[in-house]
What we know:
By secondary structure, the protein is an all-alpha fold. The chain is built from eleven helices and no strands. The chain has helices at residues 2-31, 35-52, 57-60, 63-95, 103-117, 121-132, 136-162, 164-172, 177-215, 218-228, 232-260. The longest helix has 39 residues, at 177-215. The protein is globular, with a radius of gyration of 24 Å. Pfam families: BPD_transp_1. It is found in: Cell membrane.
Amino acid sequence: MQANFFVRKRRNSLMYYALLILITVVAITITEYNVVKGFTSIPKAAEWAFQNFYPNAKALNKLPAIAESLIETVLVSIAATTVASVFALLFAILGSNTTGVGGVASWISRSIATLFRNIDVAAWSMILLFSFGQNVMTGYFALFFGSFGFMTRAFIESIDEVSGSSVEALRATGAPYFSIIFQSVIPASMPQLLSWILFMVETNIRQATLIGILTGTGIGFLFSLYYKSLNYSSASLVVIVIVVAIMMIEVVSNYVRRVIL
Length: 261
């Protein structure tokens, strides 16, 4: 019996791999992608990067302007994430199976979260460009909407996972609804919620670079400006600054997670 189980498992695995290979071949055929040319172009791309894409002394003179744009990008990302987390917590409480009021309110909360989560921040940027134009507000609201959808879903799962038993115990004692929320649900799930918020801050700083290219603001705009003007040295400095900033923020976030979890 056990031997048959492993045989079926091996056969299913082979079928999945065969299906994956078939889908890959079909995709390559439809798109007319040249696999050999794609792999052989990698050394040439690396050679070009080593010859052109590195900061020089002239590019270092632009470091103050790059740092200023980076600070703007980081602050916008943090502001969008923190404000979105407040709204996400409210919708998560309404949509949670543990704390939700049920019925239409719970369905609306989950539906709104699903809608906002499934629209990428780049798409939000393009949509909001028609309303706000190329400015910081466009990037802020694009990050806000994307963060709101993701964190609402994450908060719902965290609340359902952490606070189920404590909510049932308080309901059995006749505790009012708001006492259950503020004395049990939020304190019990707060470490997980903070962890999701920190994760979203890191993600938004990365996404803010792409949004800046689309909206003409922040560090992304400087990268686009330097790259399109063939100033590859300055563009490479922008990339290095972004990588260093993200690594520093990730170190801080990991430290905070170890403290709160």
